[in-house]
Structures are given as structure tokens and as C-alpha cells.
Amino acid sequence: MSSPGVVSERFFYRRPVHANVTVQFPADRNDDLSIRPAKRADLLAVVRIENASFPQPWPHEAFERFLGEPGFLVAVSDGAVVGYVVGDVVSNVGRQLGHIKDVAVHPDRRGNGVGSALLSRSIPVLAAHGADSVKLEVRESNDGAKHLYRKFGFEPLRRVPDYYDGEDAIVMIRKLE
Ligand SMILES: CC(C)(COP(=O)(O)OP(=O)(O)OC[C@H]1O[C@@H](n2cnc3c(N)ncnc32)[C@H](O)[C@@H]1OP(=O)(O)O)[C@@H](O)C(=O)NCCC(=O)NCCS
């Protein structure tokens, strides 16, 4: 998860590139799971999940700024938002860098493939909007998230000391080409 202070980058639209990692999802509880772009009506549920997931949650306004952007996706099950991912693509020294800024699943729905489903959709969306690689930050102690990211081909790139107000972040990256 990245700081909400850096959510103002814009998207860049370019060629489609397809992700090449195949992931199996647990079949139970996810039969009706769908992943779609976030809408304003989803924000309350998104913020509730955010508050239940992080010690320093993004505020409502941070999510509001991403409405309409293709990298803001929600996972919906039985009509309820059960998770979300926020990502974008920014121009960086002549390259298009995808950035997964935030991802969380409702505490009651974790461990059932929702996080995997969100990343499975998010990475191709970022690729389709020009990203040639995707990066993210994760708390050093967040073994669950690191496991998930490794499963999707992300590798540790560098450490950012004290990124999370007392805890280091590990920057992980996955090349898409
Ligand atoms: C990280 C998170 C998004 C994963 O979502 P999820 O729906 O539980 O993930 P999945 O069910 O798709 O699991 C994906 C993989 O990650 C692993 N994993 C997920 N949470 C884990 C945990 N707490 N400990 C160990 N492994 C974990 C699973 O074992 C699974 O791997 P496997 O298929 O090889 O068993 C979810 O746990 C969450 O919302 N955590 C709180 C917010 C957070 O930390 N977000 C990441 C910020 S960088």
C-alpha cells in the first residue's frame, strides 16, 4: 500500500500487453465473484474495508480521486463489495510504470482467492494502459501480501526505510514484457 499523499498521478493510454501468470482460485465461495471498475456507490464499502485493513487507512477522498480511472477495481460477491485494488500508470524516465497503490479484501473473505482475482484483473488492465512493469510497496512484516505478490511474479527490488511510520517498505516489481 502506498501513501495517500501520492495519489494524483494520471493514467496513460497505450498498447495492450497481456499478463503471463496463470493463477488458480479456490472454487468455494467465489462462484459469483466478479471484478469491475469501482463506482461512487462502492466507496462506503471500500472505505470500510480499508479501515478494517490498515492502521493508517486512506481517507474517502483518496478513493474518490480514482473514480473513473481504469485501475480502480472492486470485487463483488452477492451484490456486496468484498475487496478492491487501486492502481495507475505513470510516465517515469521514458517508461510507463504501473503502480498498485492499494489492495485489500474484507477480513471475512480473505483466503478465498479474492485478492488473487483482483490482481489477476489489475495487472492486465495496467498493461493495457501502457505499463511495461508494475511496482508496489508492502510492509516488510506483511508476509501474506508478500506471498500473494510473489505468486503473481513480483520480486523484491529495494527497501524504503521507515516508509510506514516506523516500518520499512519492500518495493516489489514485476516486468510485463
Ligand atoms: C493481502 C490480501 C489482499 C490477500 O487477499 P486474499 O483474498 O486473502 O488473497 P488470496 O485468498 O487470493 O490468497 C493469495 C495467496 O496469498 C496467501 N495469503 C494471503 N493472506 C495470507 C496470510 N495472512 N498469510 C499467509 N499467506 C497469505 C494465500 O495463502 C494465497 O496463496 P496460496 O494460494 O498459495 O495459498 C488480504 O489478506 C488483505 O486484505 N490483507 C489486509 C490488507 C493488506 O495487507 N493489503 C496489502 C497491502 S500491501
UniProtKB/TrEMBL annotation:
Alphabetized SUPFAM superfamilies for the sequence: Acyl-CoA N-acyltransferases (Nat)
Ranges of residues in domain N-acetyltransferase: 33-177
Coiled coil region boundaries: none
GO molecular function, one term: N-acetyltransferase activity
Keywords, in A-Z order: Acyltransferase, Cytoplasm, Ribonucleoprotein, Ribosomal protein, Transferase
InterPro entries linked: AcTrfase_RimI/Ard1 (IPR006464), Acyl_CoA_acyltransferase (IPR016181), GNAT_dom (IPR000182), YpeA/RimI_acetyltransf (IPR050680)
A Gene Ontology cellular-component term: ribosome
UniProt cross-references to PANTHER family, sorted A to Z: ACETYLTRANSFERASE, N-ACETYLTRANSFERASE DOMAIN-CONTAINING PROTEIN
Protein name: [SSU ribosomal protein S18P]-alanine acetyltransferase
NCBIfam families assigned to the protein according to its UniProt record, in alphabetical order: rimI
Keyword Mitochondrion tagged: no
Family: Belongs to the acetyltransferase family. RimI subfamily.
Keyword Acyltransferase: yes
Pfam families linked to this entry: Acetyltransf_1
